[in-house]
Design brief:
The protein has about 190 residues and is an all-alpha fold. The protein has a domain of about 120 residues. Helix content is about 80%, strand content about 0%. The chain is built from eight helices and no strands. Helix 4 runs antiparallel to helix 5 and helix 5 packs antiparallel against helix 6. The longest helix is centred in the last third of the chain and has 31 residues. It is globular and about 65 Å long. It starts with a helix and ends with a helix. The mean pLDDT is about 85.
């Protein structure tokens, strides 16, 4: 009838769902909600509201089900692909509210996935843990939003050669920091 491996997985999933506590469940719901909203904001309305809505929701909800895997990375890449498709193929305007909303929702989904990855689904957790975690995330989002608005304002002022040089120096710094971190992790 059913393969034994499938039956074992279904039984294990039932046990995990039966033992789940409220706070880890709410963290996982937060992951799904933030990534679904990021999908809806990033993808063109014609696609996100059509027949591709269910696959987008499935990709966005998968990190909530299995936060220790690569699901969050896949979901984030799908959101970015939607943003690129919307701004290039569908010629949508890159509105500031959409950029900030996508960045905020992706960061929130990513940080909640990191929390859920270390938080067992049956753990008894004080709500202060999650509120402190979300408070730190809110500070990061606020600082990022302010710096984004400042950078966009400077980009309008620094058009031309100075902007290209600043962009290249920033990219070189990012590559150097990535190489340094990769080297330090190999030790």
């Amino acid at each position: 009838m059913w393969p034994a491996a499938l039956t074992d997985r279904v039984d294990r999933a039932r046990r995990v769902a039966g033992r789940a506590t409220l706070v880890p469940l709410l963290v996982r719901c937060g992951i799904a909600l933030s990534l679904v909203l990021a999908m809806v904001v990033a993808w063109p309305a014609e696609i996100a509201g059509g027949r591709f809505l269910l696959p987008l929701i499935a990709v966005a909800a998968y990190p909530a089900i299995a936060p220790r895997g690569r699901g969050a990375t896949v979901a984030i890449l799908v959101v970015v692909a939607g943003w690129i498709a919307d701004t290039t193929w569908f010629d949508a305007r890159a509105a500031l509210w959409r950029v900030l909303a996508i960045g905020t929702l992706l960061y929130l989904g990513h940080t909640l996935t990191a929390l859920a990855a270390v938080l067992p689904s049956d753990a008894v957790v004080n709500t202060d843990v999650v509120t402190t975690w979300l408070g730190r995330a809110a500070v990061v989002v606020l600082i990022s939003a302010v710096l984004t608005v400042i950078a966009l304002g400077l980009a309008a002022e620094l058009s031309g050669g100075a902007f290209v040089i600043a962009t290249l120096v920033g990219l070189a710094g990012a590559v150097a920091a990535t190489m340094l971190l990769a080297r330090l992790l190999r030790r």
